[in-house]
Every structure is written in structure tokens, then in C-alpha cells.
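Here is one chain, start to finish.
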Amino acid sequence: MKYRKKPVVIEAVQWTGNNRAEIEEWSNKAVICSPVLEPTEDNPTGAYLQIQTLEGTMIGTVGDYVIKGVHGEFYPCKPDIFTETYEPVGSEA
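Its structure:
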């Protein structure tokens, strides 16, 4: 059998490295900004988020989106996957 994913409207915020307060308030501190790690090729600023997910703590780096799922859970999503999967709706389009 084949299945199609049901259309779901989600909330998301992109981590810019400068929007700590916005993300922590929006997620009710389920997502916290952590001290800077050593910069790497994949994370040149070294800034990262700790995201409490249903599967445990995950890391988000600058540019990643933080998605709020249908049950209020949070998880990170890389920008390329986000733009392939989601599009703006309503007044945000």
C-alpha cells in the first residue's frame, strides 16, 4: 500500500544565532541556547541549541529550524529539508 502524509500546519522558528530570547520564550524553555562550542566546518559560529524532544535531547545549529509538532513537542530540522517539506501559510506567506 501507499500512503500520503496528511497536510499539517506547524509552527517553526529559524535559529539565527541572535534570537535566543524569542526561541526560549516560544518553546517555554523546552529549547535552550547553550554556551558556544568550538566552531566547526558544519557550525562555524559554534552556537547551538539543546532541544528537548520525545527521543531525548537533540542539537540544533545556526540556520536550523525548530519545529513545534502537533502534540507540542519540539525538534530541529535542517534548512534544506525544511524548505523542501514546508511552505508558508496564511498571512505569513
